[in-house]
Amino acid sequence: MVAPAKSSYRVIIALVLAVVMMVLDQRTPWAAPVRHVLGYLTAPIHYLAHLPVDSGEWLSEQTQSRGTLLDENRRLQRQALILEQKVQRLAVLEAENVRLRELLNSSADLDANVLVAEIIGVDPDPNRQEIVINKGTGDNVFRGQAVLDSQGLIGQVVDAGPLSSRVLLITDASHAMSVQVNRNGVRAVLAGVGQSSGLKLLYVPDTAGIQQGDLLVSTGLGQLYPRGYPVASVTSVNHQAGTPFAHITARPTAQLDRASHVLLVQPTQAPQARPTPAEADNGQ
Questions:
Q1: 207-239 burial, b for 16+ CB within 10 Å, e for fewer?
Q2: Rounded CA gap, 239 and 89, in Å?
Q3: Of 16, 71, 88, 283, which residue is the least packed, with the fewest Cβ within 10 Å?
Q4: Strands 199-205 and 187-192, how do they pair?
Q5: Residue-wise pLDDT tens for the chain (284 aa)?
Q6: What is the DSSP code (8-state) at residue 207?
Q7: How many CB atoms lie within 10 A of CB 115?
Q8: CATH of 114-265, one of 2.40.10.340, 2.130.10.10, 2.10.25.10, 1.10.10.10
Q9: Considering the entire predicted model, what is its pTM?
């Protein structure tokens, strides 16, 4: 029984001393140096005690910060992709506007009424040089109508539907037309070779005086095309020994493989449509 009594006395004494020290700490300045020394000595213990909590908070902040940065990075990447697409689209629209301005400026120089049409299709058959435009009989398009771009003649309407029409290009192997050299007036027949950049002059005498770079324009003969439109420029002139005719090639002035819009010419006199190769075969 003695030991428990001593323990109780010790607890009571400790409590009394604690209360006395608290009162003295509040009422007198003598305990301040002691408190400072004890605080200095116990600072490492407090630091080590709070280290797990502080580390956890730091890791949590870093994780949240990294996640925020990743989200921001993904958002900026999406914005950059959208802006790049818009820039590309603007470049396409700018180039298209330039072509349309050239086309409209060229239409102002024509002595005939014109209709602007958009190319909506290209014949996939490599043996056919044809395009499809978005204008038809509902827009007064007719078979045999001449088609051109800002640089020259493209071809002729061979089939006009209610809403669209097919145009046979001057480079088609079945196409031929009358042209003349703008420099000296020499006339010849210009035929397609089945390639978008290929044309040839048929049965031109060696003495015709045609030169590389000569501009070939439409003559209007046969009422297939109106007179005086640029058609092609001569790219080569070869004189072959033993033959009376020169081998002459030309390139279309029109941008057949790059045009997006064309002009349909309404001449003062409706042209007599040339029969297509299929119709010519049926008539034989």
A1: ebebeeebbbbbbbeeebbbeebbbbbbbebee
A2: 49
A3: 283
A4: antiparallel
A5: 455 666 677 778 877 777 776 776 666 665 566 666 666 666 677 666 666 766 766 666 767 677 788 888 878 877 776 676 666 666 656 666 766 666 666 555 555 678 889 999 998 888 889 999 999 999 999 999 999 888 889 999 999 999 999 999 999 999 999 999 998 889 999 999 988 888 999 999 988 889 999 999 999 887 788 888 899 999 999 988 888 899 999 999 998 888 888 989 875 554 444 454 445 444 44
A6: G
A7: 17
A8: 2.40.10.340
A9: 0.61
SS3 state of residue 224: coil
The length of the chain, given as a count of residues:
284
Q: How far apart are CA 5 and CA 178, in angstroms?
A: 135
CA distance 194 to 154: 14
